[in-house]
Design goal:
405 residues, mainly beta, Immunoglobulin-like, seven-stranded antiparallel beta sheet, disordered C terminus
C-alpha cells in the first residue's frame, strides 16, 4: 500500500505554447491547480470589474494523451467554469494561457496555449499511490430548485468516502461563462465531516457540518445525508431559487483504502503572531499532505454571513512545499485583490492593499502540524483543512508509505 503527494510551482514566461514535463517520482491520479495571473508574490489589486484567479483539477488518464477529464473555474472579469483546462487566465473569448494535463512516466505533462506575453505562476498538488484506490469527477449536477435529498453519482467510483466540491457561481451546464459576480467556493466532505466555504458578490461564509452556497446575502444549505455504494446524498434544507443560487458544481470523488487515515476539520488562528501547534482529532494520522480552505473570519455558519467576498486556498506536502491563492472583493464596490505565494498556506486579504494574517507550516508530525502565524494577527480567522495520512520521507520513496520528490 502507498500514498504519495507532491506540491510545487510552475512558471510561464514569454516562450511559445508547448509543454513542460514534471517528473515527481510517481504517477499522479489527480492534480489540483491554483494561481492568479501574475508571476510575483506581491498583492495584486484591480479596480472595476476585474479580479483574476483560477482553480482547477485534472485526472490524467494515459501517457502523453491530453486528458478530457479536466475542470477549471475562475474569475477573469466574470466568473466562468469549463471542462477543457485546469487553468485558464482568461475566458475563451479572450483566452490567454490555458493548461491541460497528461501523464508521463513518474510524472505529468503540462500542455499550454499562449496568446499573451505575460509572466504567470501557478501551484500544483499531485496525489497518487495505491491507497488512493479510485478517483473521478462529476460535472453534471446543479443545486436543485427544491428542498430535499439530492443524489449525486460518484463518476464510477464505487463506495466513495471523500468528496471535494467546487462552486463557481456559474449557473446551468458546464461550460459556462459570463456571470458578473464573484462566487468562488469549495467544500470538503467525508462520511462524518463537512467543511464548506462560499462567497457571493460581496459576502462570505464558512461552516462545518453543512454545504452552503451564497447568492447575495441569501444562501442554499445542504446537510450530509449519506455516502452509499455509488453516490453522495445531500439533503438540501434551504433553497434560494434563481441566478447563481442554482450553481453548477463540479465534484471530485475519491475512495481511500480501508485503514488509510485522512481527516477534515478546522482550527482557529491565535490572537498573537508566532509559532503554535495544531493537533488532529486522530493522533495516529501522520500527514503527507494537507489542503487548507477558508473564508477568513472568526465566525461561521449562515447566521454569520460576513461582508467582503474572501476565500483562501492552499496546501503543503511532506517536505513543506507550500502554495496559497487568495481572493478578495470589497463590499459593495467592484474592487478586487488577489495574491499567491509559495511560502504560506493561508492569507487573509483585508483591504485592497493589505494582507493581515499569514500562515505557514513549519513541520508535520504524527498527530498534527507545527504552524507559524505572521503579519497582522488578531482577527483569529478559522481555517478548514483536509489532511491525508501516509507519512513523509526525505527523498524518492521506496517505502510502503511516503512522500516523493
Amino acid at each position: 500500500m502507498s500514498f504519495f503527494a507532491k506540491a510545487g510551482t510552475l512558471n510561464f514566461d514569454t516562450a511559445p505554447a508547448g509543454f513542460t514535463d514534471q517528473v515527481i517520482g510517481f504517477q499522479p491520479k489527480i492534480i489540483f491547480i491554483i494561481g492568479i495571473n501574475q508571476l510575483s508574490n506581491t498583492l495584486s489589486t484591480q479596480n472595476g470589474n476585474g479580479g483574476e484567479f483560477s482553480i482547477g483539477w485534472g485526472i490524467p488518464a494515459s501517457i502523453a494523451t491530453v486528458s478530457s477529464n479536466l475542470y477549471n473555474s475562475g474569475m477573469f472579469g466574470t466568473m466562468a467554469q469549463q471542462p477543457y483546462y485546469v487553468y485558464d487566465s482568461g475566458t475563451p473569448a479572450s483566452g490567454k494561457i490555458q493548461i491541460a494535463l497528461s501523464l508521463i512516466t513518474n510524472g505529468f505533462r503540462v500542455t499550454t496555449t499562449k496568446n499573451t506575453a505575460g509572466l504567470f505562476q501557478y501551484g500544483y498538488l499531485a496525489l497518487g499511490g495505491t491507497d488512493l484506490e479510485a478517483v473521478n469527477r462529476n460535472d453534471t449536477t446543479s443545486i436543485p430548485s427544491v428542498t430535499g435529498i439530492q443524489t449525486i453519482t460518484s463518476g464510477g467510483v464505487a463506495n466513495p468516502n471523500l468528496a471535494i466540491l467546487n462552486f463557481s457561481g456559474a449557473t446551468g451546464a458546464i461550460p459556462f461563462y459570463g456571470n458578473s459576480s464573484s462566487h468562488p467556493g469549495m467544500a470538503f466532505i467525508d462520511p462524518t465531516q463537512i467543511f464548506s466555504v462560499a462567497t457571493s458578490a460581496n459576502k462570505r461564509v464558512q461552516t462545518q457540518g453543512a454545504v452552503l452556497n451564497l447568492t447575495a446575502s441569501a444562501y442554499c444549505k445542504a446537510l450530509f445525508s449519506a455516502f452509499n455504494a455509488a453516490n453522495l446524498q445531500l439533503n438540501w434544507t434551504n433553497i434560494v431559487v434563481g441566478g447563481s443560487a442554482q450553481s453548477a458544481i463540479d465534484y471530485i470523488f475519491m475512495r481511500m483504502a480501508s485503514g488509510f487515515k485522512y481527516e477534515i476539520g478546522e482550527f482557529q488562528l491565535p490572537a498573537t503572531a508566532g509559532a503554535f501547534s495544531m493537533n488532529f482529532a486522530d493522533p495516529l494520522l501522520n500527514p503527507s499532505a494537507v489542503m487548507f480552505l477558508s473564508a477568513p473570519t472568526a465566525l461561521e455558519g449562515e447566521a454569520n454571513i460576513q461582508n467582503d467576498a474572501k476565500v483562501s486556498w492552499g496546501w503543503v506536502d511532506g517536505l513543506l512545499n507550500m502554495y496559497t491563492t487568495d481572493f478578495y472583493k470589497q463590499f459593495s464596490v467592484s474592487n478586487f485583490g488577489m495574491a499567491h505565494r509559495n511560502d504560506f498556506v493561508f492569507q487573509n486579504i483585508t483591504a485592497l492593499s493589505t494582507v493581515s494574517e499569514k500562515l505557514a507550516v513549519t513541520g508535520l508530525f504524527g498527530g498534527g502540524m507545527n504552524l507559524d502565524l505572521s503579519g497582522t494577527a488578531g482577527l483569529q480567522s478559522k481555517v478548514g483543512y483536509l489532511a491525508f495520512g501516509g507519512g513523509t520521507a526525505p527523498a524518492l520513496s521506496t517505502s510502503d508509505y511516503g512522500f516523493v520528490v
